[in-house]
Each structure stands twice: as structure tokens, then as C-alpha cells.
Amino acid sequence: MGRILVGTASWTHRSLLESGWYPADASTPAKRLAYYATRFPIAEVDATYYHPPSLSTVEAWRDRTPAGFTFDVKAFSLLTGHPTRPASLYKDLREELGAPPQRNLYPKDVPPEIADEVWRRFLGALEPLHEAGKLGAVLFQFPPWFPIGEGNRRYILECAKRCAPMRVSVEFRNHTWMDEGNREATLAFLAEHDLAYVGVDMPQGHTSSIPPILAATSGLAVLRLHGHSDKWTSKNIDERFAYMYSEPELERWAARVRELAEGAEVTHVLFNNCCADNSQRNATRFRALVGELGEPGEIGEPGESGEPGKLGGPDEPGCPGESGGPDTPERVPGGRGGAGGNHKGRKAARGGRAAT
Q1: In the predicted model, is pLDDT for residue 333 greater than 80?
Q2: CA–CA gap between residue 126 and residue 59 (Å, rounded)
């Protein structure tokens, strides 16, 4: 079984800073990241989706974390076909483009030479992490209007080619990729090209919903846990990700992740229920549960281990609309914590059989 790295999708969110999770002396960005790295061996960088990082920022991430620490970095929105604010583009490219500041940009609005330069600068900024062995994968989360099809498969391969030798992971938000009739072909496609499929746990019944299927289509397997907020479509992030996984949910996912890790060299588990310290508390407990199910030393260790955290009780402060626990009603059959199937390993993916 490969290593299992557990962490969260944020270490700087406003509500996290207000939650009291960080000690009082972790009062600067450098100290907060250094402290985070004593608790978890991996972090996901979501800020890069909204704005490409500078080289100096990435160098700081590299220098503030111990050897062996891992970052998964989310691809810039323009590269995945999401709406992109002109203000988030590099200043000289924005001026060259002459885009109205109030109108979102899409790839069709950007000339190929400017798009190529965005790719070059974005990936160039990640080089310090890659060269230090700290870049786990570049996460490409494609939008709900990115359905299965030959043209979109070609674009995924183009993304992987541009990123090489950096590893790529792929998360879908259009159900056609993982519908029952297409999921085997989707996973086989990713496995054929050694691309990591990103399994998700998320609310079901929405246009962007993907079933909670796990699959190791590469040496890297990934699971992102978004929670099950009743306000998933809210524009308010604190509402959208206001969810605390219950102990039974974590236990079910821990068992499934152990099974997933049998088919991968390394498995990344990222809690994205980033409201207050929900994700930090859930990730801490999850690390302990995964370790309890297996042999010591199989979980990635942070720079300095701490005591496993405990899930908060009903009297602890939380986020608006926070839910969870065994009494939380099911939203859609098969749409909660332990539901769904595991797709075991690259050989199984190429063979076209998925467990459900």
C-alpha cells in the first residue's frame, strides 16, 4: 500500500484565522504556514485559481515548509475555462489585451499568444516547488460546461503536455464524465495517459454533482472532500463549505481510502470544508483513523506530529448552517459519505471495470 497524505485546501482562510486554530504566536503568514506544516504533510493551494502566484510567493512556500512537504496547486481559472476577472491577469498582458475591467474573460476572449504566455508564467512560477520535490500535482478542476467529448479529452491531454514533467490531477464538475454509461471510459482514458482522477465527496442532485467514486488511474490517487452544506449553491464561501464530517462518515471514508491506496503509490486526501477550522479538525481526526486501520508509518508524517484532534461537540462554535453527524438526513440516495464505489488501480481502469 502506498503512502496516504492528509491535509486541507486552505491554511489562510479568514474564518480559519478567526477560529483560534492557530496559536497566538503564529501571527504572520510565514509562522502560520510553518505551524500548519507541523500538523499536516500536505496542503492544497486554492488561491492560484483566482490569481496566478508570483515566483517569490512560491519560493516562500518552499522555504517555509520542511523537506518532504507536499503542495497540490489549483490551476488558474483561465486555464480550465472558468470565468476570469481581467484584474487577475498579469498587468502587462491585461493592458495588451485591453479587456474591459468589469467583464469576465473566457479562453475564447484571449488570443493564443497571450494564452501561451499565461501558461508559461503560471507553470514557471511553480518551478521552485517542482525542483524541490514539493509539488504533488497541478489540479485541473473543469467547469460544469465541460462535458465529455473528444475535443475536451484533447484539451485535457494538452494541459498535461504543457505541465509535463509536473504531474496533473483532473476533477470534473460535469456529470457526463462519470455517468454510469461513461465512467469506465473516462477512467480508462485517464489511466491510459497516467493522469490522476480526483474523486470527490460533494452534495448530490446539482448540475455540478459528481458521484463519490474513487479510482487510482495513476501512481497518484486523490480525494477531495467538499462536505454536504445545504447551501452548496451559495456565493458565500462560508455557507457553501459549512459542514463538519461526523465520526461515522470519517470512518467510512477512512476504510475506502485505505482500499484506494492499495492501487496507488501515494494518495492525497484534502478536506475542502473550509469554514472556521472544520477542515483542520476533520483532517486531524481522519489521519488518526487511517492510521488506526493500518500499520504504523504508512501515513505521511508532518514535520512535527501533534496529538490527534477531536471532533467538536454541539456547543462548539461553527459556521452558518453547519451540519453533520449520524442524525443528518440523507439528501439523495447514495450521495453521502460512504456511498459510491472504489475503482481499484490502473490495471482495473484500463480493463474498463469499476466497482459501484
Answers
A1: no
A2: 9
CA distance 183 to 195: 15
The answer to whether 219 and 194 are in contact (CB under 8 A) is yes
Q: DSSP per residue over 121-154, as a string?
A: HHHHHTHHHHHTT-EEEEEEE--TT--SSHHHHH
Least confident of 7-21, 46-60, 303-317: 303-317
Q: How far apart are CA 195 and CA 138, in angstroms?
A: 11
Spatial CA neighbour of 227 closest among 246, 205, 255:
246
Whole-angstrom Cα distance, residue 156 to residue 140? Answer: 9
Q: Give residues with Cβ within 8 angstroms of 76, minimum separation 6.
A: 48, 49, 51, 52, 84, 88, 118, 122
Say how many C-beta atoms besides its own lie within 10 A of residue 286's C-beta: 27
Question: Which tens digits make up the pLDDT trace of 53-96?
Answer: 999 999 999 999 999 999 999 999 999 999 999 999 999 999 99
Cell 472544520 sits on residue: 278
The string of DSSP codes covering 178-223 is TSTTTHHHHHHHHHHTT-EEEEEE--SSSTT-----EE--SSEEEE
